[in-house]
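Today's session is about reading a structure prediction critically. Students often jump straight to the picture, but the first step is always the sequence itself: look for stretches that repeat, for charged clusters, for runs of hydrophobic residues. Only then move on to the predicted structure, which in these notes is written as discrete structure tokens rather than atom positions. Here is the chain we will use throughout the hour.
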Amino acid sequence: MAAAAATLSAPDAEKLSQLKSAVSGLGQISESEKNGFINLVSRYLSGEAQYVEWSKIQTPTDEIVVPYESLAPTPDPVTTKSLLDKLVVLKLNGGLGTTMGCTGPKSVIEVRDGLTFLDLIVIQIENLNTRYGSSVPLLLMNSFNTHDDTSKIVEKYANSNIEIHTFNQSQYPRLVVDDFTPLPCKGQTGKDGWYPPGHGDVFASLMNSGKLDALLSQGKEYVFVANSDNLGAIVDLKILNHLMTNKNEYCMEVTPKTLADVKGGTLISYEGKVQLLEIAQVPDEYVNEFKSIEKFKIFNTNNLWVNLKAIKRLVEAEALKMEIIPNPKEVDGIKVLQLETAAGAAIKFFDNAIGINVPRSRFLPVKATSDLLLVQSDLYTLEDGFVIRNKARTNPSNPSIELGPEFKKVGNFLSRFKSIPSIIELISLKVSGDVWFGAGITLKGKVTIAAKPGVKLDIPDGAVLENKEISGPEDL
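Below is the predicted structure for this chain, in token form.
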């Protein structure tokens, strides 16, 4: 990617210098956070152009994006234990459950059988440590939004056989667009004045928190980073073994795109390096080509494996200059800007970095109640904390599910289903309006249920709906 020289115009230099003095007076954040923020803003102002020369993009070879099937089998238990003793699992735990109508960290939403995302993560690592006699620790990267709640919640795992560490990602001030001042300087003293700058911040925060040096001193070598809401992101011994054997400093798990993933970032070969290409970096005239499944067949799952020594080297050298994602927001009628970065974009700075093209089962994110419907249904079972897809479903892709706004919040969603329907043979489900589901319902093929405005529509217990369009009781 062509990066413009980082020179600032006189007005921008003046802006930055005023911002620096304003930020220096913010007592709520550390010196390293102040420096990190000013560096980010300075890079943003210098307009490091992140455009791509389309003609230089190449499809990565199997050496760069390795097919999962080609990985060596899982090694023997003794070797496996020595691999696991060098591993740390880190879950990105900065998000709130607000979009799903929940208060507190998203990771404490109940996913299945009364267990939360965090419960499942802990059970998985407990089982791994018990089985191999290993000591894989769990790190949770919180944001200032989730820190206090998470610290209380992890106390319930005090008797588990895993060490759990929490640390906070950076806290940066939101920028007022009009005059380029930090929002907290405008009297916005609460949480609304601040933001966590995206998961690209994970590397600097590991270092600044002291966790990185502590892990290295314990002989840890790799960190497996994943979103806490991706139920498919479990420790994979074949991947770990491959990275250790081949000394890859960074690995991004990618998986084949479906029509639902057309906006996801993809891996490309560019000027001899592997790098992430996000939709925001694509020139307008090529966006449709970017979305096509033919040319760009894979997308980033955000399951990342990274060498800890390499993180230390690059953070110390201030070499991790990931593309900046400007995120405009409005707080109490004031237009503000959040500058963020993504962890996947760091791939181009690491030596011997690769992608691994993994099965879709390693990407099972729960972003909305429609995803919750999938994982709570008979399409999945729960074994040892792992959510496993039911073999009875022969179609490799999951049903597409669209639920109306009445189902958006978890509480409403749960109250509208007496029990979760059987969906093994479902292709698609669309629900809109005031619809209530009884117990023991089976949905097959393509089902659309659209209640008329102002009319409550009850689907009776035991109903079997196959390839149906329903708008009232007479269609049942």
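Discussion point for the tutorial: The first strand starts at residue 57 and ends at 58.
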